[in-house]
């Protein structure tokens, strides 16, 4: 398998095309890890999220690549377990009048389905209305752990 | 028309960077089906039938590698041939990979950069005409749901006889 940063990476690509190449690689990698049920898929989707949000910044919401990037960013936020980020991105993207109706419906549906799945997974927390707060704490803890430099997680 | 698989990464520079070696997968799938370069491939593009000549570097792979995922080979090789077809036939290029939820594998861009198409691809190792047609219907329905682009394309590649079925939507 080729590696990111190989000497075979095309050096002459302009910024948008370089981002397209990087997001393509990142999606392939994340989907491979997802198929293998690897926990590393969460980090891989986080990388997809970063690239999709950058692509969303440089593309029109009305254009095909702009729609793909915006829906991709929300999807990657959910797959990297960042529900609040996904909700914020939806709000941001929906402020753009150029975003087509079908894309709005798709993004809303992604978030709604994720929220329903989460409520089914944690019914007691959902009933108490504590789901967002607890999962946000867990998500923050995960992010801190993944940013740590040590080999082993630090004991709480 | 000649489809030179070895030109794939020149036709679609983005593929150089991807973790999948598409050209190699095409060589494996064609060798596995006991084809030698050049090989005629039957093309059915919507209602039109034609033929193309597939060429590749046979010296680059003379024996089949043992440890390969056969389904993966078929799918990746189909992508290689389909992508070579869209470029050779219409000079369209890959813009980017689509995530699974887009109901398409690739977003393509026209030569003038003004048109986009969603492309969904599938491969069949041991095809029959009816199996090709059934798969093409499935893939057309799938890409028909895609919001990625207003124009949509489904391509199914069979390797036993080498056939390329294309549907534009």
Describe this structure in words.
The complex is a heterodimer of chains A (156) and B (169). Chain A has 156 residues and is mainly α. In chain A, 71% of the residues lie in helices and 0% in strands. In chain A, helix 2 runs antiparallel to helix 3. Chain B has 169 residues and is an alpha/beta fold. Helices cover 31% and strands 30% of the residues of chain B. An 8-stranded mixed beta sheet of chain B has the order 1-3-2-8-7-6-5-4, with helices on both faces. In chain B, helix 2 packs across helix 3 (70-90). In chain B, 47% of the residues are buried. The model of chain B has no long low-confidence stretch (mean pLDDT 94).
Structure, briefly:
The complex is a heterodimer of chains A (156) and B (169). Chain A is mainly alpha-helical.
Strand order of the largest sheet of chain B: 1-3-2-8-7-6-5-4
What do the pLDDT scores of chain A average to? Answer: 85
Question: Strand share of the residues of chain A?
Answer: under 5%
Task: Give the oligomer, counting copies of the same chain as homo and different chains as hetero.
Answer: heterodimer
Major pleated sheet of chain B: 8 strands, mixed
Distance between the termini of chain A: 38 Å
Low-confidence stretches of chain A: 1-7
Proportion in β-strands of chain B: 25-35%
The largest inter-chain interface, given as chain pair and residues per side, is: A-B, 36 and 24 residues
Q: Mean pLDDT of chain B, as a whole number?
A: 94
What descriptors fit this protein?
heterodimer, A: 156 residues, mainly alpha, disordered N terminus, B: 169 residues, eight-stranded mixed sheet, globular
Layout of strands and helices, then pairs:
The complex is a heterodimer of chains A (156) and B (169).
Chain A: H1 15-35, H2 41-58, H3 64-79, H4 83-94, H5 101-121, H6 123-128, H7 131-147
Helix pairs in contact in A: 1-2, 2-3, 3-4, 3-5, 4-5
Chain B: E1 2-4, H1 8-11, H2 22-32, E2 39-45, E3 48-55, H3 70-90, E4 93-97, E5 106-109, E6 116-124, H4 129-144, E7 151-158, E8 163-168
Parallel strand pairs in B: 1-3, 2-8, 6-7
Antiparallel strand pairs in B: 2-3, 4-5, 5-6, 7-8
Helix pairs in contact in B: 2-3
């Amino acid at each position: 398998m080729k590696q990111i940063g190989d000497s075979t990476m095309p050096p002459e690509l302009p910024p948008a095309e370089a981002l397209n190449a990087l997001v393509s690689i990142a999606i392939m990698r994340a989907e491979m890890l997802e198929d293998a049920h690897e926990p590393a898929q969460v980090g891989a989707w986080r990388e997809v999220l970063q690239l999709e949000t950058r692509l969303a910044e440089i593309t029109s919401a009305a254009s095909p690549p702009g729609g793909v990037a915006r829906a991709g960013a929300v999807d990657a936020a959910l797959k990297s377990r960042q529900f609040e980020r996904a909700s914020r991105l939806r709000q941001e993207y929906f402020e753009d009048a150029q975003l087509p109706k079908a894309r709005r419906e798709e993004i809303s549906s992604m978030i709604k389905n994720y929220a329903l799945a989460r409520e089914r997974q944690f019914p007691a927390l959902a009933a108490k209305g504590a789901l967002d707060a607890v999962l946000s704490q867990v998500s923050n803890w995960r992010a801190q752990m993944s940013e740590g430099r040590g080999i082993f997680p630090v004991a709480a | 028309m000649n489809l030179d698989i070895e030109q794939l990464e020149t036709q679609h520079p983005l593929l150089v960077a991807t973790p999948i070696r598409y050209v190699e997968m095409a060589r494996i799938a064609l060798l596995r089906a006991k084809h030698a370069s050049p090989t005629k491939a039957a093309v059915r593009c919507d209602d039109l039938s034609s033929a193309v000549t597939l060429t590749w570097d046979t010296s680059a792979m003379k024996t089949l590698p043992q440890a390969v995922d056969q389904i993966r080979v078929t799918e990746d090789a189909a992508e290689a041939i389909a992508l070579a077809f869209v470029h050779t036939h219409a000079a369209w290029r890959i813009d980017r990979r689509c995530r699974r939820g887009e109901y398409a594998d690739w977003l393509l861009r026209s030569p003038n950069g003004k048109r986009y198409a969603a492309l969904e691809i599938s491969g069949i190792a041991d095809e029959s005409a009816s199996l090709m047609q059934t798969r093409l219907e499935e893939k057309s329905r799938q890409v028909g749901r895609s919001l990625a682009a207003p124009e949509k394309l489904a391509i199914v590649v069979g390797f036993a006889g080498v056939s390329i079925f294309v549907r534009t939507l």
